[in-house]
Amino acid sequence: MGLHRTVAGAALVLGVVLIIQLVQIWSVRVPFPYDIEWMEGGMLGHAWRLNQGLSLYPEPSPEFVPYLYPPGYAGLLAFFGYFFGLSAPLGRVLSLIGSLAAVCAIPRHLGRRSWLEGFLGGVLFLACYRNSGAFYDLVRTDGVAMGLSAWAIVWGLQENRRFRDASALLLVVGFLTKQHIALFGLPLLLGIWARFGWRDAVRFGVLSVVPALASVFALQTATQGLFLKYVVGVAAAHPIAYERVFLESPWEWGTAVPAIVVALVALIRFRGTLSPEQFTIIGCGAVACFSSAMMRGHYGGFINVQIPAFWAFSWWVAHGLAQVSGGWKTAGLGLVAANLVMSLTLLKPETLKPTDAEIAQGDRIVEALRKVDGPVLSPMAAWLPVQAGHPPSIHLIAVWDIDHHKKTPFPKLGKQFRKAVAERKWGAVLDGKKTMKYGVDEAYPQEKRLRAPDFKTRNGWRVAPVVLRTPGDAKPKGEKK
Predict the structure, then answer these.
(1) Most exposed of 1, 196, 384, 408 (fewest Cβ within 10 Å)?
(2) Does residue 72 sit within a domain?
(3) How confident is the model at residue 481 (pLDDT cuts 50, 70, 90)?
(4) Is the domain of 213 the same as that of 344?
(5) What does the alpha-carbon distance between residue 342 and residue 213 come to, in Å, rounded to a whole number?
(6) Are 343 and 367 contained in the same domain?
(7) Above 60 in pLDDT, residue 476?
(8) Same domain, 309 and 361
(9) For residues 309 and 296, what is the distance between their CA atoms, to the nearest angstrom?
(10) Domain assignment of residue 103, yes or no
(11) pLDDT tens for each residue of 282-302
(12) Whole domain around residue 419: which residue ranges?
């Protein structure tokens, strides 16, 4: 008993230390006014369009191409932005709330009797912060989507029908935030059928499927069929890297949550037939792993797509700890403590925190953009033009999503974009140290390196938008000098 208490106390203390470290990191990252990850500004641009009454899914053009997500997160950001003003800190607060909601779902499901196991499960998910690319607090869909998924799963397992109804509706909202969340409906539906009968399963199916289909129909109608063309058609044209599905994903899972062994041991040692609830728990986790692996294999899939799998493993570990006892439990707690030591060692907080120097350099870039006559093409930092009084820029990843693939449903975009660049549609281009191509260096040959040596993103694909390009004395293509 003395050893058990010592190990449990060590795991508890390590969990608290991790939380303190993360709070310190987030207190610096959340208020940072510029992009920490290069797609943040583009998401703010989506919310800006909604507040301007513009469509999120128009025909692709040099002015705007949407990300391949449903409109849920952009809509949430636009709603709060209407009252508080659109900004990166606002988006990060919303994402962090979603991520912390996912953390809280684990102890909520295990209940008060297993408070330690639930706490450690939530902490294990927090410990995956670095392994996820540090995406829990970014202006991206991941945090809110995970929060919605986690509570849809937890409420879908409840005895009370009202919670299961709420689960069905959360699945709809989650689906409108990130499309893979719809997959969790299948194990939940089957679990409800097995536990409560077919009538309750039909009720759950109607409450989840009908609003989702109605939403898709409304979006298709409002966008003249372009919504699914983007969200499904463009994504379907991308290749799948199967080595990332079958090799890299399991490695990333195991190195992030080696304590998953606790859940595996608990499953092996379990005596008797698994209950429908336990099958549902396994099924939801399997769906999380499947969707994460497939998104990782998708063209451009970054490690943040592993967040659902990381949550599922942390949830499973908490359940495993709650099922074992005696020496097995002490060993499990020890493995969780070792997992937390590893995560704390790899966290390296200073590498995740933007500095005051980066803020000052970003301010200088904004001042330089204020002097530009006309709109600014800033494809690697789409929100910087807005901070300088211009409309947001198209984002480069949105162009690449369409233009880099032969089977794209929008084959003309690349030519349209090159033509707009050649005709100098923008007053200036804020480029990276390595040019974005598309003829930018020819149409905007005058190059000025801005004084911003530290201004670059810290997460995801690293970019340094510090080169201001202008036309100089050159004439647009086709115009005589």
Answers:
(1) 1
(2) no
(3) very low
(4) yes
(5) 44
(6) no
(7) no
(8) no
(9) 11
(10) yes
(11) 999 999 999 999 999 988 889
(12) 356-470
Instruction: Tell me the residue type at 100.
Output: L
Specify whether 193 is located in the same domain as 307.
Answer: yes
Global model pTM greater than 0.90: yes
CA distances 109 to 118, 155, 190, Å, are 8, 8, 19
pLDDT of residue 271 exceeding 60, the answer is no
pLDDT tens string 343-399 = 999 999 999 999 999 999 999 999 999 999 999 999 999 999 999 999 999 999 999
pLDDT tens digits, one per residue of 109-165: 999 889 999 999 999 999 999 999 999 999 999 999 999 999 999 999 999 999 999
What's the first-to-final CA gap in the chain, in angstroms?
88
Based on the fold, state whether residues 103 and 211 are members of the same structural domain: yes
pLDDT tens readout for residues 229-254: 999 999 889 989 999 999 999 999 98
Residue 409 and residue 320 share a domain? no
Q: What percent of the chain has a predicted confidence (pLDDT) above 70?
A: 97
Same domain (yes/no): 339, 371:
no
Residue after which a domain boundary falls, among 318, 351, 384: 351
Distance CA 306, CA 290 (A): 10
Give the number of residues written for the chain.
481
pLDDT at 98: 98
Q: Is residue 82 part of a domain?
A: no
Total domains in the chain come to 2
Signed CA dihedral, 364, 463, 309, 261: sign only = negative
Residue 63 lies in a domain: no
Do 288 and 346 have their domain in common?
yes
Domain boundary (329, 351, 373) is at 351
The confidence score (pLDDT) of residue 93 equals 98
